[in-house]
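At this stage, I wrote out one protein, both as residues and as discrete backbone shape codes, and that material follows here.
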Amino acid sequence: MKTMKWLTLLCALVPSVLLSGCAPVPTNPVSLDEFNRVQPGMTVVQVEALVGAPGQEVRRDQDPRVQLTFIALNWKNPDGSVMMTSFQNGRLVVKSQRGLR
């Protein structure tokens, strides 16, 4: 009987301990104000710090012949508004947005 109590307790505690380290997903990861503060030349780390959330990588291309890396990251809000960015060799080169407030 003691074994069943320990097993029940263990089954109840393990998921809560594992999930406690999960960061909450922001309800609106990006605003129009944050979009306006993002500037060409910023690094991915700088943009993520300004927005306060990591972007979702939607594309990555590399051309080792010319030492070129291209990364496209999006920050999408639950309402469908989105900030789209393109980084070349780690620096922001293009940004656009749709529906940010």
Observations:
- The chain has one domain: 25-98.
- The first strand starts at residue 56 and ends at 63.
